[in-house]
Amino acid sequence: MSIRTPLGRARGLGSAKTGTDHWWMQRVTALALIPLVIWFVVSMIIVTGADHETALAFIGSPINAVLLTLLIIATFYHGQLGLQVVIEDYIHSKWLEVALILLVKGAAIFLGVASVYAVIAIALGG
Amino acid sequence: MATNNRPLSPHLQVYRPQLTSTLSILHRMTGIALALGTLLLVWWLIAAATGPTAFDNVQNFIGSIFGRILLFGWSYALFYHLCNGIRHLVWDSGNGFELKTAYASGWLVVVASIVLTVICWIAGYAMQGGV
After folding, report:
1. Which residue of A33, A47, B37, B130 has the fewest C-beta atoms within 10 A of its own C-beta?
2. Mutation choice for B interface testing from A37, A48, A91, A104 by most B CBs within 10 A
3. Domains and CATH numbers, chain B
4. pLDDT tier at B103 (50, 70, 90 boundaries)?
């Protein structure tokens, strides 16, 4: 007989208080990044050394703006998950560990939003 | 509590480096490098949105020798992390764990990441019309 509450059993998180979503989302974003990164590298080779107008035309075209936005979201989501694990593995002071993880997550959100904003501003401003 | 002098299990450095362990830590190191490299993409996008002067600054930085070396390193890190990441996803599906397979896929990642990096830089220079 289990002494866990029905709600606790339904959540299935156990004493760790967390599930497999970190591991799972790292894989999901990795999968999404495979085609996005290939598209991005090919695009960057094509626009390499471009002047400002060419770059604006590239970033602002509807399909590129959408793919860039997806790339930015998947990259920062994936990156902060990865950096979190690195920090958890190597930083042994709890205080510093929590501070660094918060810093990384905050920076990922800030830089991600700033990048998406730049793409949207270019796409709608042209 | 006097727990400082208790015996510890041997740490990593007592083991001879192997291809599998080297590629494993390289995956993590390239991941950290790529997180930093993302700053260049952020700068490039924001500069493009800001105006021609800001955009010229970022293009000049990328075009400089230092910028090209950084970009070369990041492009290799990207291809390595991409190829080895696919290797990890195959493992996550429960396949490729036999020792022979793990070594074969490891060497495949090494070769593929180098070949892809070289191809990209040749293509990049060709698009620009030479060095």
Report:
1. B130
2. A48
3. 18-128 (1.20.1300.10)
4. very high
- Decide: A47 and A54 in contact? Cβ < 8 Å: yes
Q: For residues A14 and B11, what is the distance between their CA atoms, to the nearest angstrom?
A: 31
A-chain residues near B55 (CB < 8 A): 52, 55
- Domain annotation for chain A: domains and CATH numbers: 20-125 (1.20.1300.10)
Residue-wise pLDDT for A7-35, tens only, equals 888 887 877 777 788 999 999 999 999 99
Dihedral angle over CA of B26, B75, B41, B122, nearest 10: 180
Tally the C-alpha atoms within 13 A of residue A92's C-alpha that lie toward its C-beta: 0
Which residues, at least 6 apart from A25, have a Cβ–Cβ distance to it below 8 Å?
A77, A81
Which residue is listed with tokens 């997550």?
A: A105
